[in-house]
TrEMBL record:
Domain ABC transporter: from-to ranges: 5-230
UniProt name for this protein: Protein containing ABC transporter-like domain protein
GO molecular-function term, one example from the UniProt record: ATP binding
UniProt record similarity statement: Belongs to the ABC transporter superfamily.
PANTHER family according to UniProt: ABC TRANSPORTER ATP-BINDING PROTEIN, ABC TRANSPORTER ATP-BINDING PROTEIN NATA
Name of one Pfam family that matches: ABC_tran
Protein's organism: uncultured organism
InterPro entries the UniProt entry points to: AAA+_ATPase (IPR003593), ABC_transporter-like_ATP-bd (IPR003439), ABC_transporter-like_CS (IPR017871), ABC_transporter_ATP-binding (IPR050763), DrrA1/2-like_C (IPR025302), P-loop_NTPase (IPR027417)
Classification via SUPFAM superfamilies: P-loop containing nucleoside triphosphate hydrolases
Length: 301
């Protein structure tokens, strides 16, 4: 696949703090790349450098089909929501489309299309201030994609949305990618990232922690998650040095197996000490990997 965006060894300093420290990653054509990290990790700084709002102190950002100054080829939904409150919905959409060199008649047509798709067509002539927070978020999303950008950057798209609208936006992102758009998705909603992204880039304290194919990261993770239903005494589990994060209630327990390469030996020992009724062994969720990686902070491919 073609690289739409290439970020090479970029850095950004604010006084004595290194906000972004030698970060590199690629975004491919028709891909959703998850940009993850705790608050203050450097995600927003990276996004602002990609958008040329601020310049990196070192490194290089390049695009395959346009220059960094060609902003109408990009779309951006910021985490900080904010559009003109006293203007009407469709007028606002058309205004921002005009800023991206879109003819008024075409922007009106596309505006009506997206308002209908996002169940806002009855509010086209309402003022922004008359809409709920979730509706305003939908309008701002329309503004970010009305001009059909090649690269879309969305920051916390799912924040504040109910499950129905989370699923709606998830399906729309999937449709946009199927039509060839490339998306950089910054989010704290790990379940949505798992469902939408093939690859992730995890940053903490300005440095890369994890980068690569999500399934490979999960499969190669140093721990496996085990859940069991059992009868008997669980002292064998409580004192086992190969187990961490042990939690038990009634006759159910969950824990991490720290040395999955010894899985068969562990299962033999387990069955000799406990009457197992059910057992599940899986790779950790992205949520668990996120928490453990941030605590450890070790860079990995």
């Amino acid at each position: 696949m073609e690289k739409v965006l290439k970020v090479e060894n970029i850095t950004k300093n604010y006084a004595a703090k290194k906000a972004v420290d030698r970060v590199s990653f690629d975004l491919y054509d028709g891909e959703i790349l998850g940009l993850l990290g705790p608050n203050g990790a450097g995600k927003t700084t990276i996004i602002r450098m990609i958008l040329n709002i601020i310049a990196p102190d070192g490194g290089k950002i390049s695009f395959s089909n346009f220059s960094i100054d060609d902003k109408n080829r990009m779309g951006y939904l910021p985490e900080e929501r904010g559009i003109y409150k006293d203007t009407k919905v469709l007028e606002t959409i058309v205004y921002f489309a005009d800023l991206n060199n879109m003819p008024p008649e075409k922007s009106k047509e596309k505006g009506h299309y997206w308002l209908k798709k996002l169940e806002l067509e009855d509010y086209a002539n309402n003022k922004i201030d008359e809409l709920s927070k979730g509706m305003q978020q939908k309008v701002q999303f329309i503004i970010s994609i009305i001009h059909n950008p090649e690269l879309l950057i969305v920051d916390e798209l799912f924040s504040g949305l109910d499950p129905v609208n989370q699923d709606l936006f998830k399906s729309i992102l999937e449709e946009l990618v199927a039509d060839g758009m490339s998306i950089l998705l910054s989010s704290h909603r790990m379940n949505m990232v798992e469902e939408l992204c093939d690859r992730i880039f995890l940053i903490n304290d300005g440095k890369r922690v994890l980068y690569g194919n999500l399934n490979e990261i999960k499969n190669n993770y140093e721990q496996k998650k085990v859940e069991i239903t059992y009868n008997g005494n669980d002292n064998f589990l409580k004192g086992n040095i190969n187990i961490s994060n042990y939690n038990a209630k009634s006759n159910k327990a969950s824990f991490y197996l720290n040395n999955p390469e010894n899985l068969n030996t562990f299962l033999d020992d387990l069955s000799n000490n406990i009457d197992i009724k059910e057992i599940s062994i899986t790779s950790p969720s992205l949520h668990d990997i996120f928490i453990n990686s941030i605590k450890g902070g070790v860079a990995s491919e």
